[in-house]
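Running low. Got one?
___
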Amino acid sequence: MGSQVRTSRTARWVAGISALSLLVACTPGEPGTQEPEQDSAGASADEGSSASTTTSTPLADGAPEGLEEFYSQQLEWSSCEGDFECASLTVPMDYQEPDGATIDLALLRSAASGDARGSLVVNPGGPGGSGVDYAMLSGMTISGEVREAYDVVGFDPRGVARSAPITCFEDEQMDEFLSSDPSPDDAAEEEASEQLMEDFAQACGERAPDLVGHVSTVEAARDMDVLRAALGDEQITYFGASYGTFLGTTYAALFPDRVGRMVLDGAIEPDLTGLEMGLGQAEGFERATRAYVEDCVAGGECPLGSDVESAMARIPAFLDELDAAPLPVQGDAAEELTEGWGMYGIIVAMYDENAWSVLSQAFEQAFAGDGTMLMYLANLYASRSSDGSYDGNGMQSIYAVNCLDRPAEAEEEDLDSAAVEQEFEEVSPTWGRYLAGDGACGSWPAEAAETIEDYSAQGADPILVIGTTRDPATPYEWAEGLAQTLDSGVLLTYDGDGHTAYGRSNDCIDEVVDAYLLEGTVPAEGTTC
């Protein structure tokens, strides 16, 4: 099937992981809280909040020709959802036709608790993660010292969440899509899988015919520069996690002189093809899974087995069992845990080592014939509620963005599929079979309007790149590659587990990042925490 694996630690995951640590081996409850209604600007509105409005003074100097109107727009911030402020930013759908159709992007600002020195623009990854939600949860992810000095501003990128979202399938169709067989065993299953992918791509083209070719990362990066100007900042201060590092890298390549202090955590090497990204993630998730299994076995009474190799082999064997006989699920519209849902339920726990104990409990429950806990984990991954509804469109927009950024290359289409699958499975006996292939990109109905050849961002101020040695979704080697690609890249290493480092690893990482954002202090090359 060629599953798309998120390179993100989304706002829902940040909120959900704290709940995971509280789970016991009983039937899990519904994650999160009820979402408030959305206001016209796209962010959540609190009926009891003040109707006060403030404006930002734009800094339109250096606006590209034809874009002066966008760069000079004045943001109107209105109170929303407690102490936050919301606004919308208007950008052209197609930067090559700025007089044509426009898109409104949803913004949320968490005002600095002290005297603001400017804005810190944030993106949580994905692609498909909501920057609005991420900024709303910045108290959980960004230090108090940084939040005292900066307004934290999040935006939903074009095609995502509240910003002209691309929604190709309805909820029931998405359930079918995600629960389908991710590793077809014969020609009939392969044909069914390919047809489902083609149906998805066709639906995207039919339901968003104008936008489907204009949600690339290059266009989102151009939106960021319009946002920078509207915020009144000469240079952008930016924190991007996971896919957000690719967005930041793209911005730096386009506007190197406008890069201020930029942190790229959980880095993506920008020149990778889709096939190379899949292979890298296969290796990364295998490495992370082995770390989990080693920890499980060392703790004793590991449900997977008493030695590492047999425990590693138990995972793909279990997924094969799900393929043959899905497990029943209690209290979920899905009713049964398929191989597809099981895959996502296991993979999501690799993003944070605090979830490992929960995964072990889920395995124990599953081996007893109940898939409920693994389904709960899969729901966290998919931003899905037990009633079958989805929170946002992240599981759909990930294809829309990735298929423009890294389309299926002609030379890749000519490769022997069996040889590719063998290469993936050699790198990752557990996950290789799921990550080989291009998914829906082989039949995507549009091409990117603009691409970038040189990501070196020559002339940019120092850019801080963070890599975690056993990161599953963005392997450490990608951080090394990005730091080398960027003319001013400086690599900071976290020797540890899980996806990304800042705000979830150790004091050393947090102190280095804070010193960089607050004082401009660049760590020495080779710094490891």
